[in-house]
Specification:
Elements (H helix, E strand, L loop, with lengths): L13 H13 L9 E3 L2 E3 L8 H19 L1
Antiparallel strand pairs: 1-2
Length: 71
């Protein structure tokens, strides 16, 4: 059985989310490679996402987790 999640006022339903994603894929929403897209517009991501130290920590963690399963 799948967990049930509460829909919050800020949530986007599955249908709308799918349309937003399709618009990006099809080029209807102009989004350069690497862009953060918030619904139907390119937006600035959170400040934390621009922190090179956090990026390095995340990359190191991913490498640790995947190396164990690569062998």
């Amino acid at each position: 059985m799948l967990p049930v999640m509460a829909l919050t006022p800020f949530a986007t339903g599955r249908g709308a989310a799918g349309r937003y994603l399709a618009d990006v894929v099809l080029g209807t929403t102009a989004a350069p490679t690497g862009s953060y897209v918030d619904r139907a517009r390119v937006a600035r991501s959170s400040e934390e996402s621009y922190d090179p130290r956090r990026e390095r920590e995340l990359w190191d963690a991913v490498e640790r987790f995947t190396v164990a399963h690569a062998a």
